[in-house]
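Subject: design request, 331 residues
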């Protein structure tokens, strides 16, 4: 089968493309290789894919409307796994237009490509950030998510709405995946696992926001990829009995799922796992909550389990040891 994987030089994109390649599929990966963080890390990820004869990389920006249209016309993809986006909650306060270009215009070029070339299934990355001010725990895809607290979250919710419109209008099967705090080897350097590990190993202090009173549903990258690979075979169909009671479903071929560890971890326990893996105690600076952050994330994954039979299981201790071992070996 022939796949397009967007964000192939990204964290989740690289691992997803690798799994598809190992299964014998043909994969075209695209990425704009922007400098939001060190491009050398993106080059490192692409180097993990280069040995596969069934992989091709094309440097391309999602917001390049003509370039994206030409790509779909030339390649005739059967399925699309759309993981590229401008990531980061805090960065969206500094450079909001980057999120408009990548996350809104970019998602639109993907939808248009799928529309005009009869892609059989579009799987795309949403985010747990969409839950915003929702007070109900655990976060369920049946909850309303109309109160985002960052532009990043607003763009990811917009992706879900845009996808539903295209599923309804053009009968395109679309599946949105709300990822919960993904970490692991080759992860993003702007995320807490990297920032904390780097500081601890250097003997520098770490910044602990909200005085450590935060919980995150940390999800190891292998568990995320397993969910992505399984769900892309679960092609949504129109539910003719749907009456508007569940926003994650529709009378169109549209679905939304959470992918999280289903086990939120206190920030202090997370730091302890890093300290244990590093063999050093952290020097902590306690700070208030940052704009755009939420105090906790917690994924209800019942619908994902029902659809795929899969539940993430990697513990924070095991996952952080793998990350720290990789980090020490590379940096």
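Subject: RE: design request

Done. Sequence follows.
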């Amino acid at each position: 089968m022939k796949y397009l994987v967007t964000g192939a030089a990204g964290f989740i994109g690289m691992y997803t493309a690798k799994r598809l390649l190992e299964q014998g599929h043909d994969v075209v990966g695209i990425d704009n290789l922007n400098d939001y963080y060190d491009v050398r890390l993106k080059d490192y990820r692409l180097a993990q894919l280069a040995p596969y004869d069934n992989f091709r990389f094309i440097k391309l920006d999602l917001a390049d409307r003509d370039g994206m249209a030409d790509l779909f016309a030339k390649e005739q993809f059967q399925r699309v796994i759309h993981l590229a986006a401008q990531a980061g909650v805090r960065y969206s306060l500094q450079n909001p237009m980057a999120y408009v270009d990548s996350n809104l215009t970019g998602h639109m070029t993907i939808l248009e490509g799928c529309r005009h070339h009869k892609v059989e299934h579009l799987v795309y990355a949403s985010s747990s950030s969409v839950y915003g001010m929702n007070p109900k725990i655990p976060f369920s895809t049946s909850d309303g998510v109309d109160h985002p607290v960052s532009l990043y979250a607003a763009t990811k919710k917009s992706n879900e709405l845009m996808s539903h419109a295209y599923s309804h209008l053009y009968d395109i099967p679309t599946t949105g995946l709300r990822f919960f705090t993904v970490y692991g080897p080759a992860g993003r350097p702007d995320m807490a696992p990297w920032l904390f590990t780097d500081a601890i190993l250097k003997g520098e202090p770490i910044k602990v926001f909200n005085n450590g009173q935060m919980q995150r549903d940390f999800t190891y990258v292998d568990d995320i990829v397993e969910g992505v690979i399984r769900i892309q075979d679960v092609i949504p169909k129109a539910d003719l009995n749907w009456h508007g009671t569940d926003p994650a479903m529709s009378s169109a071929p549209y679905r939304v799922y959470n992918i999280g560890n289903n086990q939120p971890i206190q920030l202090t326990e997370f730091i302890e796992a890093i300290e244990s893996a590093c063999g050093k105690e952290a020097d902590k600076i306690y700070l208030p909550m940052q704009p755009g952050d939420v105090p906790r994330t917690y994924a209800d994954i019942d619908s994902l389990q029902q659809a795929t039979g899969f539940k993430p299981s990697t513990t924070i201790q095991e996952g952080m040891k793998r990350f720290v071992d990789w980090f020490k070996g590379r940096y």
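The first helix runs from residue 11 to 22.
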